[in-house]
Design goal:
Keywords: Hydrolase. It comes from Natronorubrum bangense JCM 10635. InterPro entries: Isochorismatase-like_dom, Isochorismatase-like_hydrls, Isochorismatase-like_sf. It holds the Pfam family Isochorismatase. The chain is an alpha/beta fold. It has one domain: Rossmann fold, CATH 3.40.50. The strands form two sheets. It has a six-stranded parallel beta sheet with strand order 4-3-2-5-6-7, with helices on both faces. Strand 6, helix 7 and strand 7 form a beta-alpha-beta unit. Helix 6 runs parallel beside helix 7. The protein is globular and about 50 Å long.
Length: about 190
């Protein structure tokens, strides 16, 4: 699959210590396992001149104090609190100054963030989506991208999950409903060095 770098962004979803490091409160070995393939994908995309976006799930400690129904702390316990080590992107996947880092407070990286406007301002059409968790933030971000008329390309070997069946479900759902499932080997950035 050929991608035009000027119109493509790699979206690295929530590759943070809280999810990817063994000391993280929501650590999943499947999240840690995709760090290396994502690093390779980022290097390939960066060399070709594609855009890079990192999402960072961040929660102010009081975020859900007045919640009527939606309360991630009730679902998952306190995690990736604002300003904490858990909220930091893993050291192996550093963002450059030119990359966009999107702080989000829900599963969907488009909800109440600058992401859509930033992508539209740069003429980006295709989103190469990787990161974690497959059936949570990756799935919701990919679905939201499709609803906004971006082409979500879900990179199978660069998406982490708690359980293998979560990974399988999320990618089957994405492929059926709103995006395309690819592997990193399928992706060819035009003009790549």
């Amino acid at each position: 699959m050929h991608l035009e770098p000027a119109h493509t962004a790699v979206v690295v979803v929530d590759m943070q210590n809280g999810f990817c490091h063994p000391d993280g409160s929501l650590y999943a070995p499947g999240s840690e396992a995709v760090i290396e393939p994502i690093a390779d994908l980022i290097e390939h995309a960066r060399d070709a001149g594609a855009w890079l976006v990192y999402t960072q799930d961040v929660h102010p400690p009081e975020q859900f104090d007045d919640a009527h129904y939606y309360d991630e702390f009730e679902q998952w316990g306190e995690h990736v609190l604002e300003g904490s080590w858990e909220a930091e992107i893993v050291d192996e996947l550093p963002a450059d100054a030119a990359d966009l880092v999107v702080e989000k407070h829900t599963y969907d990286a488009f909800y109440n963030t600058e992401l859509e406007g930033w992508l539209n301002a740069r003429g980006i059409d295709d989103l190469v989506i990787c990161g974690t968790l497959a059936n949570v933030c990756v799935l919701h971000t990919g679905g939201s991208a499709g609803l906004r008329d971006f082409r979500p390309l879900m990179v199978d070997d660069c998406i982490g999950a708690i359980e293998d069946d979560h990974h399988e479900y999320a990618l089957e759902h994405a492929d059926w409903l709103f995006g395309e499932v690819v592997t990193s080997d399928d992706l060819e950035f035009d003009g790549a060095k």
